[in-house]
Design brief:
Layout: H1 2-18, H2 35-82, H3 87-101, H4 149-179, H5 193-225, H6 232-255, H7 269-291, H8 300-320, H9 327-362, H10 369-382, H11 398-410, H12 412-426, H13 439-459, H14 462-468, H15 473-502, H16 508-541, H17 546-582
Helix pairs in contact: 2-13, 4-5, 4-6, 4-17, 5-6, 5-7, 5-9, 5-15, 6-7, 7-8, 8-9, 9-12, 9-15, 10-12, 11-13, 12-13, 13-15, 15-16, 16-17
Length: 601
């Protein structure tokens, strides 16, 4: 009897937990005071604060420049006054100058038991912080890294293709964004929203971000392993495979041939197989290079790069296996694939790039190797089970939704660990923001890494999910992460390494315009869709019709188009900057020397 009762209880518990929803919808009377909403507002305020800090540093540099000019004018005035001085006064000044030239430091001015003495004003700054960097990244890069010509050429191949796909993909995105304002721009099936939207997302995912990551990664694994790339031929074959997949996949998408609507896997399986083959060759090439390293340790960057490749190859296989493509299994796999693609490919690989390019840009080591290891393993643990938070209140089992929410909250551990590591590495270098064109990109990327990831965890909560799901808020969140984190970090890495590899600097003004157009455009894009998406979700909960929510969104879509336009223009400027860094030097013409004149014969 007891056994039967126990079995019935277990069966009842299992049936209850397998239901899609076991509790009523959350009450929204006090929605603005919920932790998810308040937390998101604070995170957006943090981004605003960072913008104020960067603007303040730039203005400070401007005022310092104006002050230096004023001092220069004073010096010129003093010079003109010296003309009228008496000869005895000038002789006295010259004697003082001669004595100053012979002065030598004893080495004990700031040491010993006596008071520190710097009577001649030779010390500009004193610090007791042993971690203080001796050299910050300057406006112009003077260090030239000796890079093998095949590696330099390979990087230009990958990064050049990435820049092309960035411009093309965001051009499509710009056109799609305009359709929200002018939905009847065209009547051509190839240019319809349903066909162009996946062209935009897949191009910037697999064309821009993936190609840029792999190209930058080749330099990292070679440099940190102190050895050459295992096979340049394999790298070139992978380049052709991945670019062919993007070209063929986009052509099929615009023709109406797709994978049935699975977001970010709209490419049909033969096209995905091409891209996956390129990833497999890349992983093999990376692995063999790291295995042949000439140092004993494996640097933390390589953990992330190899881990991201392994997870993505596994992800593509699972996402395209036909046995998982039926019924609710399709929904579970879609959440898994969609979130893993962002977290275990783009985010994991890009974090690996930060662990190399950020310290080298600052001429100092990463703050904590242990924090990097903690962030790596907790990301591997928590990120693998959070995809279902995209389907809260869906027919999926309630326990599976709860697990996704709990693991989403667990993502605070790797995010806080990684952010702390990066910001502490940057400690002591904040003044360089006004001098460097690399550090502002890194700072925005790192801050968005915390803000975007933490906001995603807050958005997984049931109340916030109830309000924001299926609204434009999710579009803002995806751009906050894929653009604010991934793209800004990739730009920072490219600006950091290309001048050292090629010896050519981008125009400083062009980099500044690129940064501010992209940053301000993203902010306008993000805030408008977050605000409109919140209002839209609340209108649905109140029972208003769908068409009313479309009318409600019109002014926010205008701001979306304005922000998107600024972002697209910044990409054009970035493409020009890349050309300036990567272009070949024209050989100097061989001049035939003029014959010697017979006058001297």
């Amino acid at each position: 009897m007891k056994r039967t009762t126990l079995l019935l209880l277990l069966l009842g518990f299992g049936l209850n937990q397998s239901q899609a929803q076991t509790v009523p919808n959350p009450a929204i009377d006090q929605w603005w005071s919920s932790p998810g909403i308040v937390g998101t507002a604070l995170l957006i305020a943090l981004v605003s604060l960072v913008a104020i800090v960067i603007i303040g540093s730039r203005l400070s540099a401007l005022f310092q420049g104006l002050q230096n000019r004023a001092e220069s004018r004073k010096k010129e005035t003093l010079k003109s006054e010296l003309v009228n001085w008496e000869e005895e006064d000038l002789d006295w000044i010259l004697e003082k100058r001669k004595a100053a030239k012979k002065y030598r430091l004893t080495g004990t001015e700031l040491t010993g038991k006596g008071n520190s003495d710097d009577s001649r004003g030779l010390i500009a700054k004193v610090t007791r912080d042993p971690e203080n960097p001796l050299v910050d990244e300057k406006k112009r890069e003077t260090l030239r890294m000796e890079t093998p010509k095949p590696l330099r050429k390979l990087m230009i191949w990958y990064l050049g293709a990435a820049v092309f796909w960035l411009v093309f993909g965001t051009l499509v995105g710009q056109y799609v964004g305009m359709k929200f304002i002018w939905p009847e721009m065209d009547q051509i099936s190839w240019l319809s929203f349903g066909r162009l939207r996946p062209v935009h997302t897949n191009t910037v995912f697999w064309g821009w971000a993936s190609m840029a990551m792999v190209g930058l990664g080749y330099f990292v694994i070679s440099r940190t392993s102190n050895t050459g790339i295992f096979s340049y031929s394999l790298a070139k074959i992978a380049w052709y495979l991945m670019n062919s997949a993007v070209v063929l996949g986009n052509f099929l998408l615009m023709s109406g041939v797709n994978n049935g609507g699975g977001e970010y896997r709209e490419y049909i399986w033969p096209v995905a197989l091409l891209f996956a083959s390129g990833l497999i060759l890349t992983f093999f090439n990376y692995y063999k290079t790291v295995a042949a390293r000439k140092i004993s340790e494996i640097y933390i960057s390589n953990w992330y790069l190899l881990g991201g490749l392994i997870w993505t190859i596994t992800l593509v296989v699972i996402g395209y296996l036909p046995s998982f493509q039926d019924g609710l299994g399709e929904t579970v796999i879609q959440g898994y694939y969609m979130h893993q693609g962002v977290g275990m490919w783009f985010m994991t690989f890009t974090l690996g790039l930060i662990y190399y390019y950020l310290p080298t840009s600052l001429n100092k080591p990463i703050y904590s190797y242990s924090l990097g290891v903690l962030a790596f393993w907790t990301q591997m643990l928590f990120y693998t089970l959070i995809g279902t938070h995209h389907f809260v209140f869906s027919p999926l089992p309630w326990w599976l939704q709860t697990v996704a929410i709990v693991f989403s909250a667990g993502m605070f551990i790797p995010v806080v660990s990684g952010t702390t590591n990066f910001l502490m590495t940057m400690k002591g270098s904040w003044s360089a923001i006004s001098k460097s064109y690399v550090l502002p990109f890194f700072l925005v990327g790192v801050v968005f890494y915390f803000v975007g990831s933490a906001q995603g965890s807050l958005q997984a909560f049931r109340l916030t999910n109830f309000i924001w799901h299926f609204t434009d808020f999710n579009v803002a969140h995806s751009h906050m992460t894929m653009y604010g984190i991934i793209t800004f970090i990739l730009w920072a890495c490219m600006y950091a390494i290309l001048p050292k590899v090629t010896g050519k600097e981008p125009p400083a003004l062009g980099v500044g315009i690129h940064f501010w157009l992209a940053f301000v455009g993203l902010f306008a894009y993000m805030i408008s869709l977050m605000t409109g998406g919140t209002q839209r979700g609340l209108s649905w909960i109140e029972g208003e019709s769908f068409i009313n929510s479309v009318i409600l969104m019109q002014p926010f879509w205008v701001w979306r188009a304005i922000g998107g336009s600024m972002m697209f223009v910044s990409h054009l400027i970035f493409a020009y900057n890349f050309y300036e860094m990567a272009k070949k030097e024209k050989p100097l013409p061989h001049k035939i020397p003029a014959p010697l004149s017979s006058v001297h014969a």
